[in-house]
Amino acid sequence: MGQTTASAMPLSASRRTTLWREIRRNWVAYVYISPFFILFAIFGAFPIFFSFVLSFHQWNAITPPQWVGLDNYVRLFQDRLFWLAMWNTIFIGVIAHIPILGGAMVLAFIINSAAVRFKHFYRSAYFLPVVTSPVAVSLIFSTLYGVRFGLINWVLVTLGLPPIDWWGGNGEWIKPAIIILFIWRWLGWNMIIYLAGLQGINPELYEVAAIDGANLRQIFFKITLPLMQPIILFTLVLSTVGAMTIFDEPYLLVGTTGGTNNAGLTITMYLYDRGFRFAHLGYASAMAYVVSAVIVFVSVLNIRFFGRSRTEV
Amino acid sequence: MTPSETTRLIETARRDARRKPRTKRWRQLAREIVFNGILMVGAFLSAFPFYWMFILATQSTNQIFSWPPQFTPGDNLVANYQNMLTIIPFWRNFANSVFVGVTHTALALLFCSMGGYAFAMYRFPGRDWLFAVLLATMMIPWIAGIVPWFILISKWLQWINRFEALIIPGAASAFGIFWMRQYIQESVPSELLDAARIDGCHEFTIFFRIVAPLLAPAFAALGIMIFINNWNAFLGPLLVMQDKSMYTLPVALSLLRQDPRRGFDAGVLMLGTAMATLPMLIVFLIATRRFMAGLTLGALKG
User: Fold this and answer.
1) Which end of chain A has the least Cβ crowding within 10 Å, N or C?
2) How many structural domains are present in chain A?
3) Cα separations in angstroms, A182 against A72, B240, B288
4) A–B CB contacts, 8 A cutoff, strictly below
5) Same domain, A219 and A263
6) Cβ of B71: how many Cβ atoms within 10 Å?
7) Do B103 and B167 share a domain, yes or no?
């Protein structure tokens, strides 16, 4: 915008009055956008800035905060539970998202193909888990995962397989339990996004490819995937944030400490534990900053890898 | 390739397709069966847990712990309901969720449509710069400021156990404003605004009397999205609401499930879950198309 660049330069008196007149003439627009900027300043920008300051302090919200320099960060990097929670979170996020994104793409491709009827029915069915709250989903799955009387174990025993001790042992089944739940809940959401993207692709492209003798696999990898690149990027960025901040599901399945051997302790749960149950506010703030840095870093990586357009369509 | 050439090629392909050899038609049929089979299994897996939730809600502990499990409704619905009410004030929690959801959604729609309208229809100094800031805020993980956010809510604003804490902070979302801007740019003609201005309408009249009615479909789509997110929110209400009577439904439900190792009454738990989930399922089934339209507009233009 002309006005925007002008405001960055030293202004002559007359240009300053024109700018001022433009601002006055459009005062309504500033009124309209002000709720966002006011609310963001109070509930967004201020906490984020204050969190940074707090991460260099020790504070329990009662006695005055004490400056400790980088102490919180140093302790954080020596904290075994922090690394464990980080590992759990990344493990759950990565392992869950391979089938979520891959499966969503394949299902969307199948639904979009001409060979399928009842498209609306399938769309709605796959989307049902998404409108359900994570709390409700976790509670439903906690009954399915019942060790002695759960439905999944009944199916396993009926098939002649040994039942799964979901929460016991060394806690080795806790992460799979969270991952299965996560896949069930998020596959449909990504599928709907991909389906909308697929429906935006000109069907003549497929017809031309078919004429040239391309088979289904070639069409999928050579036409569909490259054209879907921006939408894949969109889902990747959102998935990164969602996976790194996963809280509701493990919290409800295995409780605040993450179950046996803390196998289900995620980074947001650990932050909740330190910050809100034990009031180590400075320490929790430092943790929040490290997690946010990881999220931003992974998002930038995603954009680097998937943001480049490989097609000229 | 010129357009006419393309059409001609497509025409030939279509003619070829009509006299396909038999093997090819068989292969197509096989593909159709495999595709539909996969989708059917997936749809079953998506929907079955809901069926199971409703079944367990009607069963007593004995029926739930029977082997093999019963796949038909039990006869313990009333007792489960009464037990649930001894643990949580369900209808109070339900009313809290409805009140917070409705007021938050109404406020959010007002702020988002105002913001989206300004960014779409006015050319004011600093517009592009401010819009870039708005988009950038979407990239900031909310978790970065959660600790001071809670201090702000609890100590300085004194909003513990108050609905304001769940209604106001997220009311002007960057995503909502961005979404509304896309919609308004595509569907509200600027000639309409010029005509209204020539007729001497005040700017506020133009927005609230002329533009806002045109946005009805957008209000519906974005409103459903905001409402469902609000209805399902857990961490925020968990932090802010510390009194049983102020809990929203997800927090109240989490109270029905105690320690996983000590066990819980699955019938009571599933009844509460079913009663909290049912309204959203109904809203979704009525407004499926609206909802998905809203979701995908945000994704595809993003």
Assistant:
1) C
2) 2
3) 32, 26, 22
4) 312
5) yes
6) 9
7) yes
**CATH number of the domain within which B214 lies:** 1.10.3720.10
Q: Which ranges of A145-212 would DSSP assign to H, the alpha helix?
A: 151-158, 174-199, 203-211
Among the ranges given (A99-103, A106-110, A200-204), the one the predictor scored with the smallest mean pLDDT: A200-204
Is B65 among the domain residues? no
Quick one: A216 and A300 in the same domain? Answer: yes
Q: Is B18 exposed, middle or buried (0-12, 13-18, 19+ CB in 10 A)?
A: exposed
Q: Is A47 on the interface with B (CB under 8 A)?
A: yes
Nearest to A32 among B115, B155, B273 (CB): B115
Which residues from chain A sit within 8 angstroms of residue B205, using beta carbons? none
From CA B75, how far away is CA B81, in angstroms rounded?
Answer: 12
pLDDT digit string (tens) for chain B, length 302 residues: 556 666 777 777 666 666 556 677 788 888 888 888 999 999 999 999 999 999 999 998 888 888 788 888 988 999 999 989 988 899 999 999 999 999 999 999 999 999 999 999 999 999 999 999 999 898 888 889 999 999 999 999 999 999 999 999 999 999 999 999 999 998 899 888 889 999 988 889 999 999 999 999 899 889 988 999 999 999 999 999 999 999 999 999 988 876 444 456 888 999 999 999 999 888 888 887 777 776 676 665 54
Query: What is the ipTM, given to two decimal places?
Result: 0.85
| Strand ranges in chain A using DSSP code E only, listed in sequence order | 57-58, 66-67
Contacts of A133 in chain B (CB under 8 A): 231-232, 234, 249-250, 276-277, 280
Stretch 109-148 of chain A: residues touching chain B, C-beta under 8 Å: 110-111, 113, 115-117, 120-129, 131-137, 139-144, 146, 148
Q: Which of residues 67-106 of A touch B (CB under 8 A)?
A: none
Residue A215's alpha-carbon distances to A142, A219, A310, in angstroms, are 43, 6, 21
Q: Give the integer Cα–Cα distance in Å for A188 and A203.
A: 23
